[in-house]
Write a structure and sequence with these properties.
Layout (H helix, E strand, L loop, with lengths): L1 H12 L9 H11 L5 E3 L5 E5 L5 E7 L4 E7 L5 E6 L11 E5 L5 E7 L21 E3 L5 H6 L8 E4 L4 E2 L5 E4 L2 H17 L7 E7 L7 H10 L3 E6 L22 E7 L2 E2 L2 H13 L4 E5 L7 H4 L8 E5 L10 E4 H15 L4 H7 L4
Parallel strand pairs: 3-12, 3-13, 13-17, 14-16
Antiparallel strand pairs: 1-2, 2-12, 4-5, 4-9, 6-7, 6-9, 7-8, 10-11, 11-18, 14-15, 14-17
Helix pairs in contact: 1-4, 2-4, 4-8
């Protein structure tokens, strides 16, 4: 499982799939799961693969998109102005490499720049640079060259560039877009494993679009699939670096899969949360239980959809998400896959019915 995980994570993290332009990750999903079950997509581009048995419909989903940018304008002297797609801190952007995906499929390498600090007055030298004062330099000398020779257009998506890289500590890996390519790898790997079992339900494996810009894909995905229960796989932020009280960390690298009980967008169905925790304990799956003061996931949209969907988020903590370089522990990922498989195996008719039996 580990070798397949690393191969999947490399392929997925190195894919160019900014919100609204998820084609490369969608193609990987389709290629990997084409023999698992029938494939379909909603009209926003979220994709599903169903593996049918009798029983309740269980959705196992991750979002395919990553934070990135979009070409907003091109200056006369050949620089690119851009807007952010998803949540960025400008202090993490300057000097970083990006790739612009053109409409003919080429990827143009560039770097994010601004007016050099040497030319700034002391009063503003240490202040954050606003995105409006940044630009992307691809080595062009004019707007005409950008259009005619580079084939760059207004509206082209821009993704961070950061190859999948093993670190000196053998379990740790660095890449862009672990939020949420760990979730997508988990969906694919769980599908491969569960397809060979006699699970007590119909499982719909899915990749949603546009999570990073407001959970947009999850809304139409819920209407499309109409699941009875949902498991969301995610790459949430770790809290185990300097500046945190490590005794209070709930997203520690090497701590196991994160089971999220609360964030401002979703309160996990308590019965489903307890089932997930008990399942992890009985199977000796390393896990960490989490209550978050901020953030949100596709669970925020899914749990409110239709007449309500019991939803839980399982995550792989990642340091420095929403930057060019994030870090995970591969054992946390493997724990997430193991818990996803084990939890799906518990969701039979009686158990799913009990999650919402209020009267």
């Amino acid at each position: 499982m580990r070798a397949k995980a690393l191969s999947l994570l490399q392929e997925l993290t190195e894919a160019h799939s900014v919100s609204g332009h998820e084609d490369e990750v969608r193609a990987i999903f389709i290629d990997e799961l084409s023999e698992i079950g029938p494939l379909a997509a909603d009209k926003n581009g979220s994709v599903i693969c169903a593996h049918s048995n009798d029983g309740p419909r269980v959705l196992i989903a991750g979002h395919m998109d990553e934070v990135g940018f979009m070409v907003q304008n091109m200056t006369l002297d050949g620089f690119i102005q851009f807007v952010a797609i998803g949540g960025w801190s400008t202090q993490h952007m300057l000097g970083q490499r990006v790739q612009i995906l053109t409409r003919n499929g080429d990827k143009i390498m560039g770097v994010i720049g601004s007016k050099p600090v040497h030319f700034l007055p002391p009063s503003v030298r240490d202040q954050p640079v606003p995105i409006e004062a940044m630009f992307i330099d691809v080595g062009a000398s004019s707007r005409r060259e950008l259009r005619d020779d580079f084939d760059i257009s207004i509206g082209d998506p821009i993704a961070p560039w950061s190859p999948f890289t093993p670190l000196a500590r053998s379990n740790n890996y660095l890449a862009k877009a672990f939020d949420n390519r760990v979730g997508m790898a988990g969906v694919i790997q769980s599908a491969t494993e569960l397809a060979g079992t006699d699970h007590p339900n119909e499982i719909v494996f899915a990749g949603s679009v546009q999570e990073e810009v407001g959970l947009r894909g999850a809304r139409t995905l819920a209407a499309f699939v109409k699941p009875d229960v949902a498991i969301v796989l995610e790459g949430p932020p770790a809290d185990d670096t300097p500046g945190f009280n490590l005794s209070e960390s709930q997203g520690k690298l090497g701590g196991g899969v994160q089971i999220r009980l609360y964030d401002p967008t979703a309160i996990t169905n308590p019965r489903l949360a307890q089932l997930a925790i008990q399942t992890a304990e009985k199977a000796n799956i390393p896990h960490q239980v989490t209550v978050r003061r901020s953030g949100g996931t596709d669970a925020g949209a899914l749990h409110q959809a239709n007449q309500g969907i019991p939803t839980i988020v399982l995550g792989v903590p990642a340091r420095y998400i929403h930057t060019h370089n994030a870090i995970i522990d591969i054992d946390d990922y493997l724990a997430m896959v193991s818990l996803t498989i084990a939890l799906a195996g518990k969701l039979d008719d009686a158990t799913v019915d009990s999650l919402t039996r209020y009267i």
